[in-house]
Design goal:
The complex is a heterodimer. By secondary structure, chain A is mainly alpha-helical. Chain A has a domain of 49 residues. Chain A is built from 23 helices and six strands. In chain A, strand 3 and strand 4 form a beta hairpin. Chain A is globular, with a radius of gyration of 26 Å. Chain A starts with 5 loop residues before the first helix and ends with a helix. Chain B is mostly helical. Chain B has one domain: Four Helix Bundle (Hemerythrin (Met), subunit A) (Up-down Bundle), CATH 1.20.120.80. In chain B, helix 3 runs parallel beside helix 7, helix 4 packs antiparallel against helix 5 and helix 4 runs antiparallel to helix 7. The chains are: A mainly alpha, B mainly alpha. Chains A and B meet through helix 10, helix 12 and helix 13 of A and helix 3 and helix 6 of B.
Amino acid sequence: MKTKNPVPRSFLLLLIGGVLGYGLGVGLDVLVTGQLDFVAPLAGLFALLGTVLAFFFGLVGYWGITRGLVFQVVGTLAGGLFVTGIRALMGLPAFGGFFFSEPAWVFGALVGGLASLVGVGVVSDWFKWAKGEQTPEHHHDPEGYVKYFGVSLDHKVIGIQYTVTALVLMGIGGLFAMIFRTELAASQLQFLTTTFRVFDQNGLQFYNTLMSLHGIIMIISILLGVAGMINYLVPLLIGAQDMAFPRLNAFSYWIAVPAGVLLVSALFLGGFDTGWTGYPPLSTRSPVGIQMFFLGVFLAGWSSILGGLNLLATVVRMRAKGMTAFRMPIFAWAAIATSLISMTATQLIGLSFQLVMFQRLLGMGFFDATKGGNPVLFQHMFWFYSHPAVYVFVLPGLGVISELLPVFVRKPLYGYRWVAMSSLGIALVGFLVWAHHMFASGMNEYLRVPFMYSTLLVAVPTGVKFFSWVATLWKGKIETPTPMLFVLGAILVFLLGGLSGPPHGTISVDLHLTDTYFVVGHFHDTMFGGYVFPFFAALYYWFPKATGRRMNERLGKLHFWLMTPSFLVLTFGMMRVGLLGMRRRIADYDPQLGFDLAHLIMTIAGYLIFISVVIFVYNFFRSLKHGELAENNVWNSRSPEWQVPSPMPVHNYDRTFEVVGEPYDYGLDGSKYVQFEDETIIEVEKIKVIEG
Amino acid sequence: MVHVDKKEALNLGAIIFAFLAVLTVLEFFIAITIGAVMLLVVIALVKAGLVGYYYMHIYRLNLEDESAHESYGYKTGTNRLGLWLFLLSDGFVFAGLAIARFNLLGLTRPHLNQSLGLLVTAVLLISSFFMNRAETSMEHGDRKGFLLGISLTLVLGIGFLLGVVGVEWPQAIEEGVTPASSAAGAIFFMMTGMHAFHVLTGVILLLVVMRNGARGLYSGEKHWAVEAAAVYWHFVDVVWIFFYPALYLIGTLLA
C-alpha cells in the first residue's frame, strides 16, 4: 500500500496546519477581545494544535494518535462551552481572560484528556467487556511504522512509543532550557525584557514559565523514558510473552499523550511562575496555565501509577521457569523498586495538586492560612512523592549500569545479591527522607534532625552499588563501544551527583545552600548520571535488538565525547556560582557579582550538549535505515533476549526457556544462564542415542 | 477454590456483619461518652481487618496456582494481585486526605449531623453484607441469590450517595460549613467528595456486573468480574470505616 515516503508531506502539512491554526486563533481572539494581537495566547495555542494535528495527519492519516488529538480538542471545547453555558445561566461572568473562564478551562481540559483516550481507541476493549463482549487476547498490529501511531497491545511497541515520546519531550524541554540559558549568558536582561511580550506574558514572566516548564517537561520525559525501558526490557529479560495487563499497559502510555499536550498548552494560557514545585500561596495566584500544569501532571501521574502496578504484577506472575528471585536480572530488581515508589507515592503529588486546584476553583482553604489552612502541609504532601520520585528516575538507570557493566568487562557482577537488595533499600529509605527539602520552610524544627540522618542513610545502599561497579571493573577485560562509554560516563557523573548530595542533607550547610545554583548543579548531576547517561547507554545497547541494525559507532562516540565534558563544565559552573551566592530560578543577576564569564561558559556548554543530542537524533534516524546489520548477539551477552534473532519476534520467545544458572557469570567456563526448550530436547535425544 | 458449602459461607458473612454492627455501635457510644481516640482507632482497625479478611478475602492472594499461565485460574490470580495493588495505591489518596485532616484540624471536628452520619455508615455497612451474599451466591452458581444481593447492594449504595451528597452536604452548607468557609469545611467536602466519587464508580461497576450477570455471563467457576466488583465495593466501605470516625467521632467540636 505504501508507495510514497509520507515524511515530506507531513512536514508540509505541519507548516500549513500551523498557519491555519494561528489564523484561527488570532481570529477568535479578535472576536472576544476586539483587538488585533499577533502574539495572543489563543493564536499560539491553536497554531500548536494545528501543527501537531496536521503533522500526524500527514504521517498516519486519520488514525490512532490523530483521532486522539482531534477528540482532545473537541472535548476541550465541548467541556469548556458546557461550563461557560452553566456560568452564563447562573449569571457569573461567562468568559475569562483566555477566552474561557478558569473553571471552564479546567473542566474542558479534563474532558478533552478523557475524550482523547476514547478517540485513540485505547478504552474500547473495556467498553466491550462492560457490554459483555469478548475481545481477542492478541490484536494484530499493522505492518511498518504505522503501528507506533495507534493502539498496540504489544509491550515492545508500547516501550518504543514511550521512548520516542520521552525523546520528543526531552527535545521540547531542552529547547526551553536553551532559551533561558541564552538569557543568562550575560548579566542584565537581553531579550526576555519587561517590554518583551508573548502569550500575555512579559519577558520575566515568560522566563519563569520556560523555567517551570523545563522542569516539569523533563520530569515527565524521564518518567516516560523509564517506562519505555521497563516496558521494552522487563518482559524480555524475565521471559514473559507480554506484560501482565496489556490493555492497561496501552492505557498507561496513551494517557501520557494528552498529559504532554496539556503541559505544553500551559505555555499559551498565561504560563505559570512557580517552578515545577507549584508551592501555594504563589500557585494560587498564578495565571490559568498552572491548572493545565496540574492536570498534565495528574494524567501523567496515572500513567506512572498504572505502569508501576502492571510491572509488579508482571514480575511476580510471569517469570520464566527457574527464574527465582535471585536469578532475576538486576534491571528487573531496579524496575520493582521503581514501581513500588511510582505506584504508591505518585498519588500524593496528584492529591496535593488537586487540593490547590480546588482551592483556586472553589476557595477551599487547605493551604490558606487565613482560613485555618497550612501551606507547609502542601510541601509535605508534594515532597512525599517528589523526593522518592528522583529514585524512580535513577533506579532503572543504575540498573542499566549494573546490567551492562559485566557484559563489557567480561566478568561476573560483583555482589549480585547486595546490588539487587540495594535498589529496594534505596526505594524504602527514599520514603523516609522527604522533609530534607523543607529544612528552610519553617516546618517543625524537631523534624529536621531525623530527616537529616535518614537522608544520609541513602548513601549506604547507593555506596553498595558503587563498590559493586568498581569491583566489577577491577581487573576486567574492558571494552569500550558506545554503550560502555555511556555506562562509564554515568558512573562518573552520578558519583559527582552523589558526592554533592550530603552537603544538602546536612542541615547546617543546607540552610546556606538552599535555593542556590549549587542545588541545580547537584540535581542535574544526579539526573544525568542516574538517567540520561544510562538511558543513552540503553538506547545504543538495545537499538540492535529493537531494529536489527546497529547505531553508528563513530557518531555515537562523537555524541559521548561532546556531551560529557560539556556537561561536566556546565554543572561544575552551576555549583561554583551557586557556592558564590547565585540564586536559582531568576532571570537576571548583578554584574557586580562577577558571574558573567562563568555563565557565558555554561551557556556555551549547554549549546554543545544540545548539539550532541542533535547528533544522536541524526544517528538514530540514519541507523534505522542505513545502520550496519546486527548479528544475533552483537554484544556477546548471556541474557535471553540476545539468544533469539533481532529484531525481536512478535511474540517474543517462540521457544520457552528455563533459567539454569546465574545471570552474570561472564567469563566462567561452562556456566549457562538460560536453556531453551529444544536444546534440552536435543540433549535428551543425544542421551537416547548413546543409550540405544 | 470453594471449600465450604453455601449455607456455611452465608452464615459466616452474617456473623461477621453482626460483629461489624456491634463494633460500629460501640464506636459511636465511646465517642459520645469517653471519647478515647486510641480506642476508636483500634476499633476502626479491627473493623477494617474483618472486612479485609472475610469479605475481601485478602488471603486469596496467597493461593498457589500450578496451572498454565494461559489458564483462567492463573489469570484470575494475576488480576487479583493487580486489583490489590490498585487498592494499595488508591489507599494512599485516602491516607493523604486523612493526614491532611489531622494536620489541619488536629483533635477538633466540624459540626455535623450525628444521626445522619450514623445512618449512612450503617447503610454502607449493610450494603457490604449484601455484596458478600451476592458474591458467595455466585461462587456457588446461584444466579438468583446473586441478583437479589447485588440489587440490594445497589439500592443501599445509591442511598448512601443520596444521604451524603443529597442531604448531608446541603445541611452542612446551611449550618455554615461550606467548602470556602474554613479549612474544616474544605476538608469535610474533600474527604466526603473523594469518597462519594469512589462510591459512584463502584455503583457503575455493580450496574455493569449486575447486567452481565443477569445475562448469564458468569458461572460458579468463572466470575472474576463479580469478585473484582465486590472487593472494590468492600474497599470503599473500608475507607468509610476510617473516614467516619475521622470526620464525625474523633476530637472536640469546633466552635
